[in-house]
Amino acid sequence: MPNRAVVCIGVNNVAKLQPLLGAVQGANDFAEWARSQGCDTVLITDEGGVEVTAATIFNAVDKIVEAATYQQLIIYFSGHGIRLNPRDEFWLLSKAATNGSAAINLSESIDLARGCGIPHVVFISDACRTPAERDELTGIKGSAIFPSNPGYTGDGDNATIDSFFATAPGKAAWEVRDEAEQNRYQGVFTDCLIKAIKSLEPWWYDKTGEGETQLQVITSRKLKIYLESTVPSLAAKADIKANQKPIVRVESDLPMYFVDGTTLLAPLVNKAKSPSGSQVKMLGAFKSYNAYKNENVQFSLQTSDWTSYKVARKQAFHLDLDKKLQNNGLPSVSAIISMQEGREGNGQLFGLHNTLSTSLARVARTIPKESPVYNQELNEVFEATRVAYEETKKNKSLADKNAERKRLRQERGEIKLLLDGQAEVLSYGFKTGFVIQGVSIIGELQSPNWLASRRDSKGRNNSAWELLPNSYTGVIDEQTPTSLLLTFRGGNSTVLPVWPGMIGIVVVEDERVVSVNYIPSRQNWRYQGYASHAVQLERHKAAIAVASRYGEFFPNRNEAEKMARELRLMKLFDPTLGLYAAYAYAQAGNYKQVRDVLSYMQQSDLPVPFDVLMLARRHRIPDGVFVNGLERYAPFAPLLSQGWALLQPGNPLHKPYHEQLRHHVIPALWTTYAPSGRDLLFTLTHNPSFFNLIHQSPKQ
């Protein structure tokens, strides 16, 4: 049996934020379950006014990692959470509003967990994923709770990571009052999770192992299916305005699991004492054992035996149902439930689950197998299961189909905008420059080397700004990495790499950069190759643009690797595709491929995007692998805002000024700075000595 550890964190009170009512309770309940599983359990909460610190949590995790004896580690958190950008979210601890490090940097922690040496790591986040409501939280840095592993390379020696998020990006996670105990509150997500992992319902269990080592388990994948079906319903029941759909990313498969039901189920089933015939008849006269006791009739069956009897009856009914399904050429109940994966809010599963639960309860309490009613119950449940299977096989849920249609429409619209915009941009005829779409007015260009002019456009807002090098002062040095500081009228800024022979197309919404892509100019040798792949290229860019609006570039590890393989083939024509590919591989924990992306891009005549080099240097370079040309990168900070969560001291590209800039980064897909950061940005982009300093090659 695997050696397992659990760290439970519950924080009701964060200074200056609305107190929560159920976070500590959720952590207590999860810890109680973990102990019942035989897990080594650490409970950290702010109950009684105790301050919860990142150091306390780090020390607990570090001790577990250092022991090097565990096969699984579960990290559970219930409390306040914020999400600044894709893959850039934080769990807030007691003093997060006054101390930027008093939070858990979730992205950094997940990345470090891959190299911790524990084969299976599970993160559970019952917290909001909404933007920061207070200014002091927008520049939060947070702390990692996993130790760094100096020997970790990311070349296949990774932990398998399962991540459970209570809600979708940008959405709140809700609390509910316990119906039985009015003074008791708990998160909707935790409530559903606890019910699932304490379930005795046999269709949730899979078997792993052989003989005496065989276990009956509930996998993360089964929990994903259950939670995606039940959480939205419970949230809506608690508040009609609640829109809570959990996001669960599962990488694990058997023999890895979440719940070990062996010690709970086996003794009850194998050692159950069946009641005598007279007792069975008496049971049929009452709806439950509690009702029977309330009649004050003497009954010799002990409570423990009664529980055993009910479990055994449930298992027998489940086996009879599976046998009937098999005889009719249908999959088992467990297999039918597994078909529901990825179908958020699927009503078929929710209805089937309720039908099965209700029938099992009746069978276990009141219906002897010898009774004609038993077969009637079995036939009714069989029919409900058959209908659920047929409906699931031919249809996705209406909500899912509508969401998919909406997404496809958005992608088609985005592709049209991209293709129309790029055809228009190419008609301008310049070799190197930028076209800014979505802003009516460009603020002052803080460089004499660039000129801005307004054009009518078919793109967003029917207008665009054209930025070209000043023919007198702005000759582009193709050997020196160059960055452009662009300031909008409201004061927000962004910094973009200047790639000679490429035209950057920048899309801005509400003075925040939401999209950047580059196309080769007609004078560039890359243009012919680009023209032959334009539709395919723009389809990928459109998919990424739409996905980012839903808060995720790549929903899971497999999708990330698949997209990365496709993007890396086309990065020659647009360096931002190499950027996306590097992030996709990093999300999957495949840093060998990140370094391959870097190596390929370094062979180009263009500077490498800062983010690609940062990710490639994030973990130890294996012996015999040499990463060269590190001085040729642009700009001087992450292009995608999610990169800030991974840019930490210890990375060769990390500089002191990054900690100053971090406080000025505002929520946006591409790094956008508040007006307060403009002076520092001006110094970084226009001071030659500073420029030379920041582009020095990092130490090998």
Automatic annotation (TrEMBL):
Highest taxon listed in the record's lineage: Bacteria
Residue ranges constituting the Peptidase C14 caspase domain according to the UniProt record: 5-199
Any Pfam family the entry gives: Peptidase_C14
SUPFAM superfamilies hit by this protein: Caspase-like
Protein's name in the database: Peptidase C14 caspase domain-containing protein
Organism of provenance: Hymenobacter antarcticus
